Amino acid sequence: MTIKVIMIVFLGLASGLSVGAGFVAFLTVMGIIPRLTQLTKTMKMIHSYEWSVVIGALAGVASSLRDPALNISPLFLIPLGLTGGIFVGMLAAGLTEALNVFPILAKRIRLDGEIVILIMAIVFGKIFGSIFQWLYFVHR
After folding, report:
1. What is the pLDDT of residues 16-69, one digit of tens each?
2. What is the mean pLDDT of residues 71-100?
3. Packing angle between helix 46-65 and helix 2-30, nearest 10 degrees?
4. Pair 52, 32: CB distance under 8 Å
5. Rg of the Cα trace of the chain?
6. Distance between CA 41 and CA 92 in Å, rounded?
7. Residues whose CB is less than 8 angstroms from the CB of residue 99 and which lie 6 or more positions away in sequence, other chains included
8. Taking the model in full, what pTM does it have?
9. Which has the higher per-residue pLDDT, 114 or 83?
10. Which of 21, 59, 72, 98 is deepest in the core (most CB within 10 A)?
11. pLDDT value, residue 31
């Protein structure tokens, strides 16, 4: 029984370390955080961005290991969800900007001069998809 537990602990730690190392390498090699600070014109706060990613990753790991039941007021959850969504959106925007995804995609679907239409389609698709997911799967 103890060998099985030790193997599970070892496998869990090894998996977590490899995923964490891949995440850090992704952020470092792609230059996501520096590009995000350039886009938002907040270069002075780069250490805050880095620490927010580290603390967010640790909080995510801690909350995924437990099944927390937070009895928090919806008035607090709304701004919390908005800030989380803004952070993920800005991180995705920094990634797409760093990789020049929009110009390549616009060229592929023949919208060369109309990148604004492409971006608005993505934005509205994300909004309507999130609303559909909330109404259909969460509020059932």
Report:
1. 777 777 777 777 667 777 877 888 888 898 888 888 878 887 887 777 777 777
2. 79
3. 160
4. no
5. 19
6. 17
7. 30
8. 0.46
9. 83
10. 98
11. 76
Residues 6+ apart with CB under 8 A from 43: 37
Percent of the chain with pLDDT over 70: 92
HSE value, Cβ hemisphere, 13 Å, CA-based, for 53: 18
Q: How far is CA 86 from CA 4, 64, 82, 112, in A?
A: 42, 21, 6, 28
Q: Residue 52: name the closest of 82, 30, 84, 81 by CA.
A: 84
Residue 135 is given by DSSP the state I
Q: For position 104, what pLDDT does the model report?
A: 75
CA distance 135 to 140: 7
- Residue 120 structure tokens: 């608005």
Between the alpha carbon of residue 28 and those of residues 24, 25, 82, the distances in Å are 6, 5, 26
The 3-class SS string of 18-78 reads: HHHHHHHHHHHHHCHHHHHHHHHCCHHHHHHHHHHHHHHHHHHHHHHHCCCCCCCCHHHHH
